[in-house]
Amino acid sequence: MAVPSVSETASSLWGLNRLLRLDARGIECFNLSVNGFWNSFIVAFLTLPFYLIQSMLYFAGTEQDAHWLRFLGLETVGFALGWLVMPTVMITVSRMLGCFDRYFHYMVPYNWFQLVVAAVLLPLSIVQAVGLLPQGLVALLFLLTTSAFIMYGWFIARHGLGVSAGTAVAIILLDLLLSLLVNGGTEALL
């Protein structure tokens, strides 16, 4: 993995902006090559601090038997696995669906979209942790946010892979299932 150039980063952020406005042409703004795929993993390093802060907020707000260092270590392993599982599984899935030629059209924007996820979830987690809003309202905000993430994930899958609406739904369900398995496995180790 190399660090993307300033030009590639700016183009990717512009593509992300267009995708957030439901403009499928935003996909073409990303570096859709093998190098662009590997470069998109810079987002994992950019979002790791967001994730760790969010994890520690969760740790502080719940009763955990594990020491905080063990918790943080396992969360970091879970984070890394989360970044590896979906791209790996999608190699096989995209081949089975006959759209492997568009694998990078999906995975590169998918990876960059995680910036949006991190940037939205951390403030919500802080609001929840400090009790700024009633828990019911925070739960509603998390539900609406998750719904938006699912919708955008569907949009990126549909247009990135060039698959039907139903197939894009199946890919989103697969992504959710894999996330639950990774997170559940991490929690089971605590």
Question: Could you give a short description of this structure?
Answer:
This protein has 190 residues and is mostly helical.
Would you kindly provide a written description of the structure presented here, covering whatever features stand out?
- Keywords: Membrane, Transmembrane, Transmembrane helix.
- The chain crosses the membrane at residues 37-59, 71-92, 112-130, 137-157, 163-182.
- This is Yip1 domain-containing protein.
- The chain has 190 residues and is an all-alpha fold.
- The protein has one domain (6-188).
- It contains 7 helices and no strands.
- It has helices spanning 6-20, 34-39, 42-61, 68-96, 103-130, 135-161, 165-188.
- Helix 4 packs antiparallel against helix 7 and helix 5 runs antiparallel to helix 6 (135-161).
- The radius of gyration is 17 Å and the shape is globular.
- The two termini are 31 Å apart.
- The model has no long low-confidence stretch (mean pLDDT 93).
Helicity level: over 70%
As a percent range, the share of strand residues is: under 5%
Form type: globular
Low-confidence stretches: none
The largest pleated sheet is described as: none
How many helix segments? 7
Radius of gyration: 17 Å
Task: Give the SSE order as H and E letters.
Answer: HHHHHHH
How confident is the prediction overall: mean pLDDT?
A: 93
Protein name: Yip1 domain-containing protein
Transmembrane segments: 37-59, 71-92, 112-130, 137-157, 163-182
Organism: Caenispirillum salinarum AK4
Keywords: Membrane, Transmembrane, Transmembrane helix
Secondary structure topology:
Blueprint (H helix, E strand, L loop, with lengths): L5 H15 L13 H6 L2 H20 L6 H29 L6 H28 L4 H27 L3 H24 L2
Helix pairs in contact: 3-4, 3-5, 4-7, 5-6, 6-7
